[in-house]
Amino acid sequence: MQICEIEKIVGESPVHKTFFFSCRDLKKAKPGQFVMVWLPGIDEIPMSLSYIGNKQAITVERVGEATEKLHCMKEGDKFGIRGAYGNGFREIGKKALFVAGGTGVAPLMPLIRKYRGERHVVIGARNKELLLFLDELEEIAEIYISTDDGSIGFKGFASDVAEKIIGEEDFDVVYTCGPEIMMKKILDLCKKNKIRMQASLERYMKCGVGICDSCAIDGYHVCKDGPVFDDKILRKIKDFGKFRRNEAGKRIKI
Fold it and tell me: Any idea which fold 95-253 has?
């Protein structure tokens, strides 16, 4: 574990902040990998990297005790970092569609920035105030916006926009991260249209290295075998888009 100092904080939305830091262990991190963030006396939580390279960052939505603590931290404060862990995205093809729901755009951003082919991005959120990285995405990709309330762009879900675009364009691969029900719809769309797909899954994690079994799903560990899985494996995972496990390990409906 490395203790890292927060070098810069950027407010992204009313409930999202990006925390920049420098960690020597992360200089070779790959898009889609995650870290374990240790907040002494509070918790240790998994967070995807939204920036990689010499400077790294996590983009955090305020949703619970640990993320509330992070949102109260200031530049110069410190936290512990373990990682990077897991398997990231693999860059394939010459034309890609990225489908992001909510904070799911964060782990996709490092890949979007470095993807060498043609980039099309569907970004969805509950409302326009919660859309992340919009200015940057407009500069580097063809973007399509959806909001649940119709405050900007298409009124509806990112998966609905993706279905329309896939029907009009030819893509080599689809990358996605967001609500699992959305990603299951994307998997079905890709299967129907014979397009390769990679998705970043989120599960409850304690260790981050495949020991505690908290993130097990149909024989796979999201922390070690994922968090990025391709379409071939996702089709084998019966719980994908249907069930997850809570802190006690109980299987519950998504």
Answer: Rossmann fold (3.40.50)
